[in-house]
Amino acid sequence: NLEERDAAISQLREILRQEREAFGADHANTLNTQGNLGIVLVGADQLEEAESMLRDGLDRARSSLGGDAPETVTIMTGLSQLYWQRRELEPVKDLNALIFEANRKRFGDLHPATVSALHNLAVAYFLADDREFYAGKKDWDAPDLRRASELFAEAAEKGKALYGEDHPSPYSSQFMHGVTRLNLGEYDVAEGAFREVAEANERLSGPDSQGVFSAKGQLARLYIRLERFEEARDLMAGAVDGAERVLGEDH
């Protein structure tokens, strides 16, 4: 709640003051606290102060600890969240690329932090393409969308290698790979992705899981594009019936 958030901000301010006095402004502990405070300020929508704090922290962390240090990654994560909140998607792409490379160097390719960063980077490219579309500036060569699709496919593949095919995590990337391929008009690849996601979620979470409904809804969208209207109607009707049964009609 708001009282707990404000208390956390006050505590972090005091810790940061003490660490600056004890260790100096460029110490790893100090910079980690500065990054965490910046992240909390972003969550509190105090964006001007958060940006100033995070930018100062990033300059100090890069200079004193290096670009791949965990404290640097924490601060870059905070800045990414800030720009995401402002819908400034080019710096979000740049920061998430740096976060991914830092985690890959530190942990290797098959680590939860690396795979998560890869998925987040794909999302940044996907939303950048979305922003161009809604602003009427769509490049129909769709370089951002194609890059997003490649990254989602890589994240899904590495997620399966890391977690196995009986874990739900890789299928969020697989689902988005299907969405991007559908938007690119590559319908066979998209259909395969959605069917795999639907089957996996049904196996892992049961036929009435949100993951099944979402995948079948995207399959219906694909079939509408292909003018396979009866199949689309049947899929969507089943998804709506299941969602009403599980979530209620007013959800």
What is the topology?
Elements: H1 2-23, H2 28-43, H3 47-64, H4 70-86, H5 89-107, H6 112-134, H7 143-163, H8 169-183, H9 187-205, H10 210-225, H11 229-247
Record keyword descriptors for this entry.
elongated; 11 helices; 251 residues; mainly alpha
Verbal overview:
The chain is built from eleven helices and no strands. It has helices spanning 2-23, 28-43, 47-64, 70-86, 89-107, 112-134, 143-163, 169-183, 187-205, 210-225, 229-247. Helix 3 (47-64) packs antiparallel against helix 4 and helix 6 (112-134) packs antiparallel against helix 7 (143-163). The chain is elongated and about 70 Å long.
Mean pLDDT figure: 92
What level of helicity do the residues show? over 70%
Q: Ranges with pLDDT <50 over ≥5 residues?
A: none
Order of helices and strands: HHHHHHHHHHH
What gross morphology would you assign?
A: elongated
State the end-to-end CA separation.
24 Å
- By DSSP, the count of extended strands is 0
Hey, roughly how much beta strand do the residues contain?
under 5%
Total helical segments: 11
Could you give a short description of this structure?
Helix content is 82%, strand content 0%. By secondary structure, the chain is an all-alpha fold.
